[in-house]
Amino acid sequence: FLTGRGCPYGCDYCSNHLLNELYKNKRKKILRLHSVDYIIRGILLLKKRFPTLSYFDIRDDTFSMRSTEQIREFCEKYKHEVNMRFKCLADPKTVTKEKIQMLVKAGCTDIIIGIQGSQRVNQEIYHRNQNDEGVLRASEILTKHKKLAVMYDVITCNPYEKPEDII
Fold first, then answer.
1. What mean pLDDT, rounded, does the chain reach?
2. Confidence (pLDDT) at 28
3. End-to-end alpha carbon distance in the chain
4. For residue 57, what is the DSSP state?
5. What are phi and psi of 84, to 5 degrees?
6. Which residues of the chain, if any, have pLDDT below 50?
7. φ and ψ at 156, to 5 degrees?
8. pTM (2 decimals)?
C-alpha cells in the first residue's frame, strides 16, 4: 500500500517525471503524505479484515523521505498498535542511521534502495540527483543491521551505459 502520493524527484525513467510535468501549477504540492494516524488506522483495518496477513509492504517511492519526526511517530505507533513485520522503499539521500534504527526496531525486515545507475548515468541520463558517495554512505548504514534484508534497485542493460559505468 501507499502512505502518500508523488515524488519530488524528476527522474526521467519514472512516471513521476511525467506526472510532475503534467500537473505543474495545477496542484499545491507534488508530494502528498497521509498522516501517521491515518496510516495506522488503515493498517489496523487491513489487519482485522485479513487476519492471515504476515507483513505489510509500504510501496511509497521513498518512505524514508519522511522527516525523522514522522518516521519516529510512525515507528512508535506501528510497533505499539500493529506489531507486524513490514517492508519499505528508500533512497540513498534520505537514509540516515537514526531513521533506519527506528524502522528496524518497529519491525522493518526488508528495504529496497533505489540506485538505478552509476553517478554519471544518474545525473546525465536519468536526471537523478544522486552521487556514488551517497550510495556508499547509505549502504554502510544499512549493512550494520544484520536482520535487515537490503535489496538494491538497479536499471540494467541501459544502452547509454559505458563499460566503466557498469563496473
1. 91
2. 67
3. 35
4. E
5. -130, 160
6. none
7. -110, 165
8. 0.90
Secondary structure of 13-33 as H, E, C letters: CCHHHHHHHHCCCCCCCCCEE
Rounded-to-5 percentages of helix, strand, coil across the chain: 45, 15, 40
Burial of 58 (0-12, 13-18, 19+ CB in 10 A): buried
Alpha carbon dihedral 89, 121, 31, 67, in 10-degree steps, equals 60
Q: 89-99: buried (b, 16+ CB within 10 Å) or exposed (e) per residue? A: bbbbbbbbeeb
Backbone φ and ψ of 50, nearest 5°: -125, 80
Q: Which residue's C-alpha cell is 533512497? A: 91
DSSP 94: G
User: Could you give the 3-state DSSP secondary structure of residue 160?
Assistant: coil
- DSSP lists the bridge partners of residue 55 as 85
User: For residue 62, what is the DSSP state?
Assistant: T
Query: Using CA atoms, how far apart are residues 143 and 138, in angstroms rounded to an integer?
Result: 9
Contacts of 123 (CB under 8 A, 6+ apart): 129, 130, 131
